[in-house]
C-alpha cells in the first residue's frame, strides 16, 4: 500500500532517511516531514519565551520586592 502525502494526499512522494527516521517528502506540494524533526529549530521561538525576555527592569510596586 503506497503512502500518501498528509498535506495534499498525493502519491507522488519520496521516502527519505533522516536521523534514522523514514520521512515523507512530497514532489507535488513540496511538503517535507524532515522539518518536524530538525535538531536546531532556530525559527521556532515560542511567544511565551519572547514575553519573558526584556532588556529593561519591570516597573511598579513589584520592582523592589524580592
Give a quick rundown of the structure:
The chain has one helix at residues 47-52; strands at 13-18, 21-26. The chain is mainly beta. The protein has a two-stranded antiparallel ribbon.
Number of DSSP helices? 1
Order of helices and strands: EEH
Q: What fold name stands as the CATH topology of the domain at 1-40?
A: N-terminal domain of TfIIb
- End-to-end Cα distance: 62 Å
What is the tally of beta strands? 2
Q: How confident is the prediction overall: mean pLDDT?
A: 76
Please write the CATH class name of the domain at 1-40.
Answer: Mainly Beta
As a whole number of angstroms, the C-alpha radius of gyration is: 21 Å
Fraction of residues in helix? under 10%
Beta content? 15-25%
Name the structural class: mainly beta
Strand order of the largest sheet: 1-2
Bulk shape:
elongated
Amino acid at each position: 500500500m503506497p503512502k500518501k502525502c498528509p498535506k495534499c494526499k498525493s502519491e507522488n512522494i519520496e521516502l527519505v532517511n533522516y536521523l534514522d527516521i523514514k520521512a515523507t517528502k512530497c514532489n507535488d506540494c513540496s511538503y517535507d516531514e524532515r522539518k518536524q524533526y530538525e535538531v536546531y529549530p532556530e525559527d521556532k521561538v515560542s511567544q511565551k519565551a519572547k514575553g519573558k525576555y526584556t532588556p529593561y527592569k519591570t516597573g511598579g510596586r513589584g520592582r523592589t520586592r524580592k
